[in-house]
Amino acid sequence: MKIERIELRRIHLPYVRRFETSGWSHDAHTGIVVRVDAEGATGWGESPVSDGPWYNEETHHTAWAILGEFLAPMLLAADLEHPRQVREIFARVRGNRMAKAGLEFAVWDLYGRMQGRSLKELLGGTRDRIQVGVSVPIHRSIPELLETVEGYLAQGYRRVKLKIKPGWDVEPTRAVRERWPELMLQVDGNSIYTLEHAEHLRRLDAFDLLLIEQPLEHDDIFDHAKLARTLQTPICLDESIVSPSHARWAIELQACGVINIKPSRVGGLADAVEIHDRAQEAGLPVWCGGMLETGIGRAINVALASLPNFSLPGDVSANDRYFHRDIVVNPFTLNPDSTLAVPTAPGSGAQVDEEYLDAVTVARAEFRPS
Ligand code: NPG
After folding, report:
1. Is pTM beyond 0.90 here?
2. What burial class does residue 343 get, using C-beta atoms within 10 Å of its C-beta: 0-12 exposed, 13-18 middle, 19+ buried?
């Protein structure tokens, strides 16, 4: 199969509410939607980059440049038999994994639609529904936080992740735990702590948390291994697992007991599945993280999370938790048991609302074989 056309669109899609972490905040999705066309079929992907290099080094400017200057021409020059080959085609490009993932997702979706097979089936998914939770941003006060959590629980979410930072960690976590003793609860530091906070972080052991996510530096594995030895709560790595090799290093160093897999963070679905398999062999559970994706990236995440070792609830909430109106006509809705149904339609199953996509597009570029 030869890709005949690639289209990039930078979008601006406001969030229902501001999302604040230990290091940045976002009011809108400002990522890149990717479309590929071949043999009369279309596939869609998304690079969930933002306006600044806060989570990782990529932004919508860097991803736009790398996609247009390098990745699109490489893909247009290739002859593909299977989407798994995309990672080899892009291997010469270092890093820039979210840019790569946007195109790789679109090729998986295209391939699934051409073959009449769902992404779940192509990836080896085994679940019809995936367990999901909700990620709760940093709030200004504990009463406001409790109100937000209560609202999500009323909607049916059964697992909550609290964003934490120094000055907003032990007390909010204690307040949520005291109010909901049985709730599946976890916290995420987004790389804001250092080993000097080890004793402070041990105070979180009192709250029966599922895990503490990425407390230390975004590219660290070594110090997480040291910290893990002093905590009862399992450490989960997110930012610092960017490839199957990083997963192997973390597993061998016993730096974490759990891995958050975001297919966009690791450059695409091929590496995401490999990380899933490595963790499974080592006996580590994984769960699917989120980058506040549109319905396009969300459908990709849901399909991936149907693989067997995704045994903890993901940060893959229903579309209406993020957007009043999404760029798909078939948003996910939350089932009463805190699950989302895994699509069975060909490809990712996302049906793009092209009219609304046009309305939220702020930049566009098109590429064809030279
Ligand atoms: O539900 O998609 C979601 C948000 C999950 O907390 C979440 N994402 O660090 O994992 C994270 C965080 C994030 C959001 C990271 C936006 C980067 C950008």
Report:
1. yes
2. buried
